Every structure is written in structure tokens, then in C-alpha cells.
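Fold it.
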Amino acid sequence: MGKIVRIGNGQGFWGDSPDAAYELLTRGPLDYLGLDYLAEVTLSIMMRQKLADPARGYATDFLLFLRRALPELLERNVKVVTNAGGLNPRACREGIFRLAEELRLHGLKVGVVEGDDLGPRLDELFAAGVPLAHMETGQPLWEVPRERVLSVNAYLGAQPVAEALRQGAQIVLAGRITDTALVLGPLMAEFGWRPPQWDLLAAGTVAGHIVECGAQCTGGNFSRWWEVPDLWDVGYPVLECFEDGTFVVTKHPKTGGLVSVATVSEQLLYEMGNPVAYLTPDCRADFTTVHLSQVGENRVLVSGIKGGPPPDSLKVSATVHNGYKAAGQLVIAGPRAVEKAKLCADMVFRRLDKAGVVFAPEERVVELLGTGVCHPGLVSPPHDLPEVVLRLAVRSHDRHKVERFGYELAPLVTSGPPGVTGFAGGRPKPQEIVAFWPALVPRQLVEAQVRVSVEAI
């Protein structure tokens, strides 16, 4: 079938296995290694870090990976595409160059993709009549006090990634690009795919979607988990891609996990909206045209994908401060454990009411883990459980109220019913609530910038 481009994804989110990417690099052949660090909430965390220290605001785990893997990457000539740049890709690039100098590696080319961060441009956008209205409530972002807006990022597509690779970048470092761009970008660079080749761009988009969550398509989070061999050593996914838009989903030999029509199908349905029009900045993909066939052990061929032109808008992922929360839990053991747990919950909120700290019903969460709260009605627990976990949580815009809640759990150990235990780790502390704010922006108002630079070592 001609030229094969092998693309692996070794990171499904910031916090994924610290060894997965290195093993994906070293346990079999690759041309490209994708590393996806960003979720909707991640950019707000990075913003807090950047406000505290202008040299931060990116996924520091990426540099930890490079310290271990950079010599191997260069020796194997594997290129890396990642969104680890977060809100500060330039600072991340400087960290890469410092690391290369420390490791005595010469001539490393790093491409930076910027333009997604709309935070500094909010006044300009609002003046142009762009409300960045919440896609569910319709509320314009300009109605939110500016100090509560934590991050505002447009999703860029694969084109700037491809451009950085065409300019010779060995590492492409971006902020908020689409997850699928980590795969589609290399394919556009390798095969020369461009608009209006919508079917090919849709194929690359589907390929990126299948591997974007790492091991979720190789046996992780799989409904028939008992069929997955050696899940402890799960192999992260590898795509074998061809110029005609077909590709094989697989994993390296002698790794655990499972690649089957079923595992790939489950990942295809992950975060699925309208299957006929899966929208990205690069195209729209019709997931109803995807054809899967098992062509070997741990090998699934994907073909038949159709696509169309992209929408006129880009999705924006904004986050806003929305108050504070705190949560804590206790183990309630012994006879009549469920009854005692309900009493403990009632005691906490009655004592708070007595102290003048009142939480409305919608500001409280009471969960008795073990009684079927995750799937109510599906399982009937035994009449008298020997123990349950009582989880209590509150939220409020008043930080002091949330802090006061944290004082009420520990006293239950001696002033509540018998069998209260498991209190450890200190009082629950208030944590900032970061609310996701999805919006749209006209695509002509967002322009990606690409710069490939070489640090002379």
C-alpha cells in the first residue's frame, strides 16, 4: 500500500502514565510520537501557575519525559508533536533548549505554534461584537467580571502543526490545538494533504480521535475488561497510516492490552456528538462512514471515511472562577452502618446551621458509597451493610463558609455514633471551582503563528 507513516500516542492527559511514552518510543518502530496533555480544566491550572511565575504555565511533565527520552528520540529520528506548551509554549521551548544543552545535544529544532490564547485579546473581540456566549446558557462572556475569567483559548487545527514539520521541526510545541491535530498534522506534512481533500483530512481526524486518549483504544476502560490480557503492561496505540487515508490501529508486539473492533469502536464513540458531522477546525468527519475490520491479531483496519469542509467558527474553551468547594469522607463501620452514616450527615449540617453557616440543598452533596449511589437502582445492597463510606461536599461563593464546613467531620469520631473512622489527611480545605465555558469565535479572527527555531549549542 505504499509508504507507511507510524504515529503513536503516549499521553492521553496530563497525569497519564509516566512510562507509557518512553516505552512506546523504545519497544517498537515509530515515526511520530504524539503527547496530549490538555483537558478543559488544565489550562486554568496552567494560568494559575503562570500568574504566580511567568516562567511557568506549561506541562512540566513533558520536560521530565524529554530528560529521559531526548537522546533516544534523536537517535531513532522520531519527531514529537505535543500540546504541552499550554499557555506558555515559549517558556517550554526555552526549557527544552536548556535541557538539550545540559545533555550536550546539538542543533535541535523546536517549532512553536501560538495564536490560540485569546485572553489578551478579549477587549478587542468584545469591541468587535464577539460575545463569546456560553454555548449552553447563551450568557455573553463580557458579563463575567474580568477577574473571574481564568483562561480563554481557541482550538487551533492541524495546519500550523504541519507547517512547523515542513519547516524541519523535530519537536512541535503547541498550546490549545485539537487532540486530533497531533495525528492529522504529521499526515498533512508527510502526504501533502490539504483542503479541499476533505475525505483525507477526515480520515486523519478519525485516526487522531481513536488514539487521543492513549490506552483507551488498546484495552483500557474497555467494557469487556476481563478479555484484555496483561492490562498491567498495556501497550499504547500505534497507527500505521497510508496516503489513501486508510490506516491500521495496532500496538507494539509483546505488550499487553487488546486492539479489536470492539475496543476501537468504544473509543470512536467517546465524547461523540453528531456522528454525521464531527466538527474540527480542519474539516467535518462523518463517523457513520467509518468501516472497521480485524485484519490480524491486535490489528484493526479503518477505511471508508468521508468528510466535508469545516465550520465557519472555532470552538473556544474558556474557564471562569465560580466559587469554592470542599469535600471529605469518613468510614462508618459496624451494625446499622447506613443508618449511622445518614445520622452523621444530618449532624454535620445541623451543627453548621446552628453556627449560622447555612448551605442550601443545591450546595450540598451527601453520598453513601457502597449503597449504589454511582448507579442508583441497578444494584440492591444487602439489608445491613458492614460498612459504608460517607462522602460530604459543599460549595459556595463564600470561602469562609466552605472553610467552616471542614471543621465538622473530625468531631464525629468521638461525638457521633460508634464506628466512625477513616479520618485522615487533615480538615477538608476550600478549593477553587473552575467552571468550563464553551463558546464560539469566527475563525477569521484567529490566526495561528508558527516559528521554528534552533538553539546553537
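The mean pLDDT is 94.
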